[in-house]
Amino acid sequence: MRWHRFVLDTPAPFAARSLAALAAFAALACFGGAAGADEVQLAVAANFSAPVKQIAADFEKETGHKATVSTGATGKFYAQIVNGAPFDILLSADDETPARLEKEGHAQAGTRFTYAIGKLVLWSAKPGLVDAEGAVLKNGDFRHLAVANPKVAPYGAAAIETLTALGLLDRWQPKFVIGENIAQTHQFVASGNAELGFVALSQVMKEGRIAEGSGWQVPARLYSPIRQDAALLARGKDNKAAVAFLDYLRGARAKAVIRGFGYDLP
Q: Model pTM?
């Protein structure tokens, strides 16, 4: 507002010069904003790959900072971070890994928060194979069942919990096709290499429903809550883009995207 009044109150002979100065000031401000932009390296759990692409794009448009995304299994990211991988932020598929990294000094204390609560679904690319009650698990009308590696993928651990709760683990374990992470597990089912598998609801959901094939959303009582936590890693403590991204992730626009992919919010 002060610049606006200055231009209006400036005598006519100097108005053009004042407007030119204002334009120069605006240009310098824009240049300074671009020059101040930074880059954040994100390690993101594979189940969150689709939402984070949209969130990162929106973040870049809004802040000018660049977000580079790497996706994979949470357990593998843990090992990479401990061994010095150049990540600034971890978006985990669980809440245990960020807490462990904080305890070990690889994540900044007080920066952890739950950004999403994941949901497990039994899914097949074939329409009609998986019914709304998951009865296919009882009748055994399949040869292969895709499950993410439960040692490194929280959604895989949730699948094992589900089968254990249903009393079906021993029966179907010989039919397992193990994915390195939940993205590979989804690919096994999407390609038909496994008739069905346990994947993240976010991978098959579009506009509030399962977009293709058939699926059964596993009741939450059958597995431990998949609380997905974010944390600022030690490498990112002085990175303003990393701090800005975590702030953005807490905001209304990012939360709307997260809900749109079928996640719950804490």
A: 0.80
